[in-house]
Amino acid sequence: MNTELRIPSVADWDTWLGCLELAFGGVPLTPESREMYATLSRPDRSLGHWDGAECVGTAGAYAFQVTVPGGAAVPAAGVTMVSVAATHRRQGLLTSMMRRQLDDVRSWGEPIAVLKASEPAIYGRFGYGAATGETGLRIDTSLVRLALPPGTDGVRLRRVSPAGALDACEAVYARLAPDRPGTPVRQPGWEQLAVNDPAAHREGGSPLICVLAERDGEVTGYVTYRVRPAWDEAGPRGTVAVRDLAALDAASYAALWRFLFGIDLTSSIECGNRPADDAVLRLVSDVRRCEVRLRDGLYVRLVDVGAALEARRYRAPVDLVLEVEDDFCPWNAGRWRLTGDAKGVASCRRTEDRADLALSVRELGAAYLGGVSLTSLASAGLVRENRPGAVAEAALAFSWDVAPWCPHEF
């Protein structure tokens, strides 16, 4: 069966989006979400497969900037809205879209591509490696207590409308973004995603609620959440469902958690996406009653190995020759010498020297943000050491002191 792969026109948008909705269960987006994504999406960075007048495959790529180790914001393609119609599976549509998309990303001068995978098994063959983890929590607040740091009582909490607090919350987000690799730097319009609250997505809960933390008149943190009421024979069993929580200091962070623990008529807190090293796990009295679940988060694909490795900083001096395997983007394949000084600044150039390590671009993407150990990958047989000590040298240089994390979907 022949299909046409092309950039959708503005007139194609509803048909293109309808293909995506059908692939993800057939539930249409709410009018609010449809309008928001229509605004954020870039038709010139999107692709569609067409079988006559029917759209049977979709893929998009937002223009992002993502924080990498060292705090720099690196241009990145935020891969999104990928689907293939059930009637057109196993015909090479996805592979052709990934091929065209990565060629486009390279032409746009973006050294990395990133995505959140609906199904983790899909993207490894295209060179994407799982680079961050995210923690889900369900905390039994009837049994778990918090250890509070000094200064918590000096934090003022104030409830505001999510839309009214948006600028203050975004200012906190912007200050924190350089500190954690994997964090997307907000582009214009993306702040609306944080307050998008269609009734169809509330699962019987309240509209979104926002509480600000303040110290000395300055906003130092925020939490957005909803409450899902529930009762049983023993009384109230409501759940606090946290969408986002961020703070600039330990006292504000703890004050926001203390507030969530004390919400009336509730006995649990649920969080779907927290960093793997979230500090709340150090504050709780009983981590076993927090039902900690770790899953994959952001996937990273190095589109330009040399530019990507030069964009980040390194934890220790490094001088390594990496032999990179990349069948899908052959311009990356071959040997690269990575040399970095004590300040973490590095260069990465082509070389004919003997390789110290050999690995695929997928494993390089997994290690890129500093959250996946090259030692662990080597133990799994995914990194091959040609020079004794090279794995240890590389693992130290690539590691970072903060777990990478992508705090929102796209």
UniProtKB/TrEMBL annotation:
The N-acetyltransferase domain, residue ranges: 3-151
Active site, per annotation: 123 (proton donor), 410 (proton acceptor)
InterPro entries membership: Acetyltransf_17, Acetyltransferase_Eis, Acyl_CoA_acyltransferase, Eis_dom, GNAT_dom, NAcTrfase_Eis, SCP2_sterol-bd_dom_sf
Highest rank taxon of the organism: Bacteria
Record's keyword annotation contains Acyltransferase: yes
Keywords linked to the UniProt accession: Acyltransferase, Transferase
Keyword Transcription regulation assigned: no
Quaternary structure and partners: Homohexamer; trimer of dimers.
PANTHER family associated with the record: N-ACETYLTRANSFERASE EIS
NCBIfam families per record: PRK01346.1-4
Record family assignment: Belongs to the acetyltransferase Eis family.
Annotated protein name in UniProt: GNAT family N-acetyltransferase
